[in-house]
Amino acid sequence: MKVLVTGAAGQLGHELSRVFSGAGHEVVATSHATLDIADPAAVVSAVDSARPDWILHGAAWTAVDACESDPAKAEAVNGGGSRNVVAAAERVGARVLYVSTDYVFDGTKSTPYVETDRTNPQSVYGASKLSGEHAMRDSDLVTRISWVCGYHGNNMVKTILRIASAQPGLKFVDDQIGHPTFADDAAAGMLMLVEAGAAGTFHLTNQGAVSWCGFARAVLEAAGEDPARVEPIATADLQPPRPAKRPANSVLDNATLRGQGFALLDDFRLPLGRLVRRLLAD
Length: 282
Known about the structure:
CATH topology of the domain at 2-153 and 179-206 and 252-258: Rossmann fold
Helix content: 40-55%
Structural class: alpha/beta
Strand content: 15-25%
Low-confidence stretches: none
Strand order of the largest sheet: 2-1-3-4-5-10
Distance between the termini: 34 Å
Radius of gyration: 18 Å
CATH superfamily of the domain at 2-153 and 179-206 and 252-258: NAD(P)-binding Rossmann-like Domain
CATH class of the domain at 2-153 and 179-206 and 252-258: Alpha Beta
Shape: globular
């Protein structure tokens, strides 16, 4: 099939382009430099030119804290951009895979979130991404991911390794828990769903719930360092405080994947080890 990737310069977009191309599909890769998804005419032009079977819509404004100070831009890109993509897809008969987020939930649930749980975003970013979800049609595919890490772009694994190389002790919150998602595994999962012709909403994360403190310790352990260098801290004690509210519970249960007989992604420690080895070898 032929796919058009938006946000192809991002950490997930890189992997989507690589994984779909590696599986023999024709990939048209676009980035913010080549396609402004907030411009309806530009989106129509790109989609009309490519005439894809699927649009893998990974482009988004993901600067969670910056979104708080510019809600109009967040909605224009994440909500409006997604509506533009769906409108253009409609013209050429394409389906859309939309990449969404754990931030559509409020984080107050005491157990993992399943796909049918009520959404209640507590941040501008989460609200704008939910707006993008609402733009999708019944035939489209929504994949919610969380705590994304990968070889390309900025992410927490790179941040933890950088801090660890510069100072003896690290402090990370232990009252926010989630499922890390590694970009290469997520892209492979999205390929699986697209090739199966899946539709609807899927949580697509690596397995293994962990706090940010526990995750930082796992990063140091994967790097051959002492995980005890990481000390826990409460979100309320962060200085300076973060503008956007983070969900305390971001654990996404991959219930629909499991229920439809799809393979779950590996425990996060496997791709974490693979990524840390690659980063340290650079």
